[in-house]
Amino acid sequence: xxxxxxxxxxxxxxxxxxxxxxxxxxxxxxxxxxxxxxxxxxxxxxxxxxxxxxxxxxxxxxxxxxxxxxxxxxxxxxxxxxxxxxxxxxxxxxxxxxxxxxxxxxxxxxxxxxxxxxxxxxxxxxxxxxxxxxxxxxxxxxxxxxxxxxxxxxxxxxxxxxxxxxxxxxxxxxxxxxxxxxxxxxxxxxxxxxxxxxxxxxxxxxxxxxxxxxxxxxxxxxxxxxxxxxxxxxxxxxxxxxxxxxxxxxxxxxxxxxxxxxxxxxxxxxxxxxxxxxxxxxxxx
Length: 285
Prior knowledge:
The chain is an all-alpha fold.
């Protein structure tokens, strides 16, 4: 075993395989981003670099094309509303599931994971059937898309918040109750501030998931007025469009990467604070 490891107890070949996989995965994305800077209309070859498809073209660039504006607006609006609904509902559900003690609690916890493990195409078809055959009174388009995104992303919020609740424990709330705080005050003044990093991370994960979603948005879309960026890219790519779609995809990629990076930073700080709190608790005992 020691022969396979480096001087510091590491396995260099594992790091090599990991980086090769990362580079292989990123290569198509990097090619698509590079083509977005083409000065010509080719989407298959590299051309001299230009900002034509971002702002230079007076009619077809991301900055000037109304259809691309609408797709971006729909995507950001849908993701923003999904964040505002899925995150607080997910926080409430996570707290409830964490404190639920009974025979049905394990079953409820398992059901909460179904949207995560279910293939998205199956989930999209199921939502389409539900809204077209059962809940026919629900307005189509943005409303059904929003309900679909909230249903799909809610489980991610619950998982993140429950992980933070497990790390926090009950001692802080119990200490607040011992000092005279009511149950509501202990939750508002103690628990929710401790959950702050996890709540922010949940917001960012919901945003990134909603922005990148294609299947659910496509099944529940009612036409060009409710097209999101993934739908626009898919339909445009099949029709043979200009690199403006690559530019639009690059802009949304930046939004997603920023959201994921912020979530990662917050989760890292959350772990550090959790380790510090655990150390202080250990010293106190």
